[in-house]
Amino acid sequence: MLKFVRKRAVASLISLVGLLVMVFFLSRLTGDPAALFLPVEASAEMKAQFRELHGLNDPMLVQFGRYVGDVVTGDFGESLRKARPALDVVLEAFTWTLWLAVITMTLVAGAAIVVGSLAAFRAGGFFDRLSSLISLVGASVPDFWIAIVAIVVFSVNLAWLPTSGTGSLLHWILPISVLFIRPFGIIVQVVRGSMIGALSSAYVKTARAKGVKSGPIIFVHALRNAMLPVITVIGDQAASLLNGAVIVETIFGFPGVGKLMIDSILQRDFNVVLAAILVTALAIFLMNLLIDLAYALLDPRIRH
Amino acid sequence: MADHLLEVRDLSVEFHTAVGVVKAVRNISYHLDRGETLAILGESGSGKSVSSSAIMNLIDMPPGRISSGEILLDGVDLLPMPAQERRKVNGRRIAMIFQDPLSHLNPVYTVGWQIREALTTHGTDAAKAASEALRLLTRVGIPDPERSLDKYPHEFSGGQRQRVMIAMALALRPDLLIADEPTTALDVTVQAEVLALLEELQRETGMAVLIITHDLGVVAEIADRVVVMEKGVLVEAGTVREVYKNPQHPYTKKLIAAAPGKGEMHVPAARAEPVLSVRDVRKRYGSFEALKGLSFDLMPGETMAVVGESGSGKSTLARILLRLDEPDSGSALWKGRDLFTMSPTELYKLRRDLQMVFQDPTQSLNPRMTVYQLISEAWVIHSDILPKAKWRERVADLLVQVGLGPEHMGRYPHQFSGGQRQRIAIARALALEPQLIICDEAVSALDVSVQAQVIALLDRLRKEMGIAFIFIAHDLPVVRDFADHVMVMQKGNIVELGTVREVFDAPQQDYTRALLAAGLDPDPDVQAAHRAARLQRAS
Amino acid sequence: MTLQTADTVVTEEPRFATRMFRMLLADKFALCAAIFLLFVLIIAIIGPTWLGDLATKQNLRGRNAVPFDWERGWVWWMGADALGRPLLARIIVATQNTLMVAAGAVALSATVGTFLGLVAGFSSPRVNQIIMRLADVIMSFPSLLIAVIVLYILGSSILNLMLVLAITRIPVYLRTTRAEVLEIRERMFVQAARVMGASSKRILFRHILPVVLPTLTTLATLDFAYVMLAESALSFLGIGIQPPEITWGLMISQGRQYLTNAWWLSFWPGLAIILTTMSLNLLSNWLRIALDPVQRWRLEMKGRKNG
Amino acid sequence: GSGPIKIVLAEEADLLEPCMATRSNIGRVIMQNVSETLTELDVRSDKGVMPRLAEKWEQNEDSSWRFHLRKGVKFSDGTTFDAKDVKHSFDRIMSDKNTCESRRYFGGITVTPTVVDDYTIDFKADPVQPILPLLMSLVTIVPEETPLEFVREPVGTGPYKLTNWTPGQQIVLTSRDDYWGAKPEVTEATYLFRADPSVRAAMVQTGEADLSPSISQLDATNPATDFSYLDSETVYLRIDHNIEPLNDVRVRRALNVAIDRQAFLGTLVPESALLATAIVPPPTLGWNPDVKVFPYDPEGAKKLLEEAKADGVKVDTPITIIARSANFPNVTEIMEAIQAQLEEVGFKVELKFVEVAEHEQYYSKPFKQGRGPQIVAAMHDNSKGDPSFSMFFKYATEGTQSGFSDPKVDDLIKRASAAVGDERAKLWSELIAYVHDDVVADVLLFHMVGFSRVSERLEFKPTMATNGTLQLSEIKIK
Ligand SMILES: Nc1ncnc2c1ncn2[C@@H]1O[C@H](COP(=O)(O)OP(=O)(O)OP(=O)(O)O)[C@@H](O)[C@H]1O
Ligand SMILES: Nc1ncnc2c1ncn2[C@@H]1O[C@H](COP(=O)(O)OP(=O)(O)OP(=O)(O)O)[C@@H](O)[C@H]1O
Ligand SMILES: [Mg+2]
Ligand SMILES: [Mg+2]
């Protein structure tokens, strides 16, 4: 187990470095930040000076060497736009994103597993049809629809909730609800599919022969066997939340890492992009590690 | 007639399939009283499992359908009962031991958990359930029960899993126990213990037992009455003695006549160059040593029977010889070349020559393939064996040889009975025309008439094509009829190795002797005598 | 015992296609879905040549015309967009591009992802480690960044867009497949196949893949929606498909600002996406059952009852 | 009354650096609120450059400018404001230790500040700068102690000081008791940031904010709270004259008359937007009322094209219009409509939408080698009241966004920049007419309007400057 984690950590570190190298060079191919930072009327000298000041005039390899040197000492550089350490900017935003992702995914996973399982239990029944309809619409509706409509209904017309922002607990309700919908739809479907198979297995018969109630049969006997694809997909959805829920952050004014990343990419604020990718990648690597451990935890047959 | 514990009246069950309606059970009726043991004998695929599943309400409906009949438990019809109440009956009042323990145990929970669940479901508190589970595992003879509680089903041997099932079924001391082939995977000594356990419980609690088996010895040992089924129909009923001594129906007669263990024992030819030469094979699972250095030789066309305690490493040996598990050390020379060091490409060529029939037929058949696809896959893989045009014909041929029909070709594994699946697995192994077949309890789920037919087939192949067999079995009479050499295993060791005659007539080791002594005789009278003697010895 | 002759009422097994067709008839939802998809497919093929001109004809005076105006021609029934172009015609014309991008991206990512997943689950720990870490990398590479980079360097085209979207979706398939393979390869029938000498390829594709496939199809159908919407987000940021090309996603993103004033601009393309996803999903759920021998009775029984 | 207010903006200020205050997202928060300038341009009435931290100014003999500074002014850190601060502020902008944006207004000019006494400072410019007092309205004053590098906590002399800044969430300005001028009614301003226009509108509606200077035209439906204002942005198509067929003036004229500008008003462009005849909006010095919008004349366009074609101009070459997605509201639709109108008269037009960084590469020099005929759709902002901030960049041979080179244009720009008073206005007018009518330099489209939503409890009318400056002291509370 420890050995497994250590091996994994080494491999992850290598791929993390690879990722950063890739992003470093690729992102620098996408244009000159000077042109974006300075107004279009800025003179060529000003642009040159900007590049000089931020070391963008040096050959790419020199820049890379310097970056690596700094990173090794824990310095991820300054944000071009914000004139403050890129890592600080990212960590600030990531905290919000992390909370949003964790809360949302917890709710989603719980709800989707229950709904999907029940739907599978009576596949083809009314509940199944209804939940399929809802989940599919949820999975394919543009999220800004829901966001804007939710604001119009709950904030403007009913005045129950604030439109946007981050102050109180109430502020979290709309963003989380909007984020909830799509992963919920997807996971319900995956759970349902996987559970249909599990529920027709022989061991479910055994449980029925033991007189076990439907509840435990679904949620204890079948579910755990059906969980492998489910947690994989939960992981995938969580990863996309960790990478930032751009729409929700934009509309609800949530200062998360998604919008930060887009803005930094569009503005070619490389240091922030790199730091953001580093932080989210770390989170995602860690999550994948947890998922892989969960596989083994869920199914003793795949423990090595 | 409300005084019967269980009464099945006019029960019919049918299944819908793509190719039409299968009438699995047709208008059968029988009854069972408290403390009584009723054996259902019958051809494999005759509807034994289905009819007993109907009692437990475990038939998938649809595609199954109970088209007529009623099932009365203490005079109350179980069929129209609402699910809520059924649950109180299942497990507590009626318990079931399934035919196919591997697939019927939940792979992701420890066996301890699964046994405890049977108890807690019906209201036992957790602490009590825990101690009870330990007691039950001990009772069914699982070695190291305390540690075993925390093991998962795949970590057990076939026989051990079956005992776990038994423990689970007995947990709540039900009024009625339905035991579907409860001892197919048990060696005779353990089988005797388990049967004794059933009897003891019967004495203590007045439990009634409905036992489905094809082993006439088991019937003779514990049953009071027998019903015989064939092709979904109940063809004969009566006390054990009546039916054995004076069978009425031709099928019953055939069945009794087919009881193994009466033929000539083989005399193996003089030993020449062995095809397979196994030296000092060892295997451990964690700290547990499953194989402790086995060595033996196998001649071409020879049958090596492997008998021995459940959990002694028989299946492990088979798996290792086929490189499904890697051994820790040792060598196995196949025609002079070491199986254990072969590269995948070399192995591929060899696969053709080495085949296996698995202990657990359900799991070893891909549920998404039809019988035709399952069998013909061999020729897809090794394309030089048979031209495609002939496949259909050959599959039909093989099916008939193992006692199935060509009409089964389009069906899927789940649509067959346990014994039928085993026969499909045998047919599949034969399709490759290998030189060595490892049969892991390959005939244990077959009724004696089919068993005899299959054994005869294997024997013919052995003679005609020089196929060698490693024949893992616990059914001593079958071994006696079929084997050239017998290898007796216990706790990962070979305790005795010799020709059939040597082993059966002059066993050297205590364990072998105990094994032989524990064998059951199909004749109820003989068995009654054995029993009396045994009881006397015990007291 | 006269009954002894045959224990089954055997009818000749119908051909695969007929059987599938019958099972499709048995599931009304799936049947509707199939018909709808067929319809969409036909539209995708003939749409651009059929209504191409109508869909681009602007009329600023008739901008944002309301839907359900039965007086005008049928192409106006869904109303008009901000340039007065009939929405229905635009949706029809956009079908081709939309399906090309979505189907292309989903098919590509599903194929590559599944293949890598099978390999990772079945080969040596080293290969597994390499593939899985690669998946980690892709997974943590924000899709938008990939999009900006690829489209910036290679230029924006339908093919590149498809490529970008495909890359970002690979890890789901990969990880799902691998997780399932880990479990399935321990099953006895896989070992039985090995004993028969089946090559890894055969075991993976003939024995393991069919078990994983239903889950993957479910994922893929849902990804269809995902891809169409992601493409819309990219358009909005100026790195996706851009006018005058049209896709449903682009229509949604163009209608975005009118959501509270002229809802129909983004509603209809959104509905098209929802219906397509839903149909695909219904069909995949049907397929899951139709291809699973243990579940198939659900459809076969119904067919009988109905027929 | 008085009290705190909340303002919701579209874009967060990523930096509150005074010398970057000419950037609109930063300026809107700190310009004249926290950081003040020596002079200030009056945009509400027609008073031109007004005193702020400088009480008065005059031109010296040697044509340098002398500014007399206000006394008794204190920075928010308590230090006193004097001429050294002004010099430092200016030097800081010119320093190469940072990339202050305001420096761009001094491109090509060398300015030397000399402290005369504590409250008098001279600026000597080479070449002579007649509009130096106007330029000084762009130089924010920081205390002498301010480091040359960017700071995150602006210190200024303005009526407010920064009291809270939670990046991503809010910026709070609180009014200062020791401010030199009149005490504003707004005691505290909280700035919030929402990228979505309909959310901004909703926030004012629900009372979560009091003021949103920019909402979408579509949301501006409530006459009691929603106002439109000319926002100094001009949308135009920059033509690259270097490539055939755009090097032919008939073709450029055809482009101009082929577009039905009027049809956009009230449809894709707000009703109240103005059709442009110059790159600068009307109140700018020298704006020429005699220049007339090109008439919509598709037949004329066709004829022009035919003429050109007859002279061997390859008018069939596909022309690419490059636009930036989300550059301004409805940009895609407007460009699609323009494309349709151009194709109507026989142009072959391709549309290309790009993101901001790529757009910049097409818009500014150096242009790519081997390019085809290109037109870049862009939006230009000049709220400074003088065309010099636009003309050089957009039309001079050396201008970074200029698509042509014309000696007369160069000459006019040079002369106008050096001129003062009416002469200056006249020269600019002449240039505007020449560029529009004779050179047909580009396709000028609209002077855009913005929409703001102001809570009914406030009294505030946004102006052309609101884009870059939002003076809290101008907001009154009812
Ligand atoms: N789901 C099903 N679909 C179609 N036929 C089925 C299905 N389940 C069982 N059958 C058929 O019903 C018959 C009875 O099966 P059952 O399992 O009761 O046999 P059995 O008597 O227990 O045999 P064995 O001793 O081999 O276990 C068999 O012929 C089998 O093919
Ligand atoms: N994967 C495993 N992990 C741990 N222990 C295992 C595993 N597989 C088998 N064992 C143990 O190895 C021993 C030998 O098992 P094996 O299946 O070879 O027995 P067997 O002789 O075939 O018994 P049976 O007759 O009951 O099938 C058993 O005690 C079993 O518990
Ligand atoms: Mg059976
Ligand atoms: Mg075994």
Short description:
The complex is a heterotetramer of chains A (304), B (539), C (307) and D (478). Chain B is of the alpha/beta class and 539 residues long.
Fraction of residues in helix of chain A: over 70%
Helix % of chain B is 25-40%
Task: Count up the domains of chain B.
Answer: 2
User: What string gives the helices and strands of chain A in order?
Assistant: HHHHHHHHHHHHH
> What's the total number of strands of chain A?
0
> Mind summarizing the main beta sheet of chain B?
6 strands, mixed
Quaternary state reads heterotetramer
Give the CA-based shape of chain A.
flat
Give the tally of β-strands of chain B: 20
Could you name the key traits of this structure?
heterotetramer; A: 304 residues; mainly alpha; 13 helices; C: 307 residues; flat; binds adenosine-5'-triphosphate; binds magnesium ion
Structure in words:
The complex is a heterotetramer of chains A (304), B (539), C (307) and D (478). In chain A, helix 9 packs across helix 10 and helix 12 packs across helix 13. In chain A, 78% of the residues lie in helices and 0% in strands. Chain A contains 13 helices and no strands. Chain A is an all-alpha fold. Chain B has two domains: 253 residues, Rossmann fold (3-Layer(aba) Sandwich), CATH 3.40.50; 232 residues, P-loop containing nucleotide triphosphate hydrolases (Rossmann fold), CATH 3.40.50. Chain B has 22 helices and 20 strands. In chain B, the strands form four sheets. Chain B has a six-stranded mixed beta sheet with strand order 6-7-8-3-9-10, with helices on both faces. A six-stranded mixed beta sheet of chain B has the order 16-17-18-13-19-20, with helices on both faces. In chain B, strands 2-1-4-5 form a four-stranded antiparallel beta sheet. In chain B, helix 4 runs parallel beside helix 7, helix 15 packs parallel to helix 17 and helix 16 crosses helix 17. Chain B starts with 5 loop residues before the first strand and ends with a helix. With 307 residues, chain C is mostly helical. Helix content of chain C is 72%, strand content 0%. The N terminus and C terminus of chain C are likely disordered. With 478 residues, chain D is α+β, with helices and mostly antiparallel strands. The longest helix of chain D has 19 residues. The mean pLDDT of chain D is 87. The interface between A and C is large, with 73 and 59 residues. The structure holds adenosine-5'-triphosphate (2 copies) and magnesium ion (MG) (2 copies). The site of one magnesium ion has 6 residues of chain B, from helix 12.
